[in-house]
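Reopening this ticket.

The earlier resolution said the output was attached, but the attachment link was broken on my side. Pasting everything inline this time so it's all in one place.
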Amino acid sequence: MFNIDENSRYKMSNAFVDSMIKLAKAHKNIVLLHADFGSKFGIEKFSSAFGDRCFNFGLSERNLIGSAIGFALRGKIPFVFGYGNFLGKAFDIIRNGICYPNLNIKLISLSSGFDAGKEGAGYHVFEDIALMNCLPNMNIYCPSDYNSASVVLKEAASNFGPHYIRLSNREMPLIFSENHLFDYKNEILRDGKDICIFSYGNYVYKALKVADILENEGKSVMIVNLNKIKPIQKDLIINSAKSVKLSVSLEEHSLIGGVSDIIANILMEAKINNFKKIGIEDVFTQSGEIDDLENFYGLSVEKICEKIREFLR
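Inline output:
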């Protein structure tokens, strides 16, 4: 179903630019709006080909979102590209200007979680899914590698309505082949009978590494990729949790309002009580190297394995 290519590593920001060039050729009404990203993320590749459809608003996120609304009202399909923290700066406009009238605008968030590393708490984004999930009409997607990001962006261009797509800017190995068909659905990547790990985004790869270690210790581990977070597939979550002794959510997001809470609510209604959460506690994070930060906050592969062993005991 999937194939991890450790030797081929790509950033999802590259998938965004490459996909936008292809999409702009196919959809004449697509426009790209960004917050002064330019050459840093390869936006110049798009602007060179489609200069009249690429707009730089600088570090003015509220103007960026407000202008996207104007483009959408004129029949365009705006793809808005910014750091994850722009969501908080323009939340009321996203709520009242995009989701309430159900406009066809795609919000592409870059550098969520620890991606910003040394930039510190102001740029570490751990609350974006909580913010977007509470908005009616919003669709939320979190691809986990270059190829899955390309599929999600293509589907977003074809499906009407507000979309929030969370991309990582780290170099990640390819998990899925180019011809893998997601069809916007979540899926079981590997089956197991002892533990089920629900994850999404770049932590799907980490979940697979954790599963390898635990399986060497005699545990059978299921991995569920939550590529699509809203609307979420409740039946898949319930049936997966039912089939194992322990179910665990793993996310690079606050445990308050994130996918952990979404799953907890689903399983509580289904009266399933084998669920535990792994993610960011209710804290502001420090600055530092990404690997050091993940280890400090209990999200390295080794620390995740330790937590799961504790849950099992």
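Reporter confirms the inline version is readable. The first helix runs from residue 12 to 26. Residues 141 and 228 are 5 Å apart (CA to CA).
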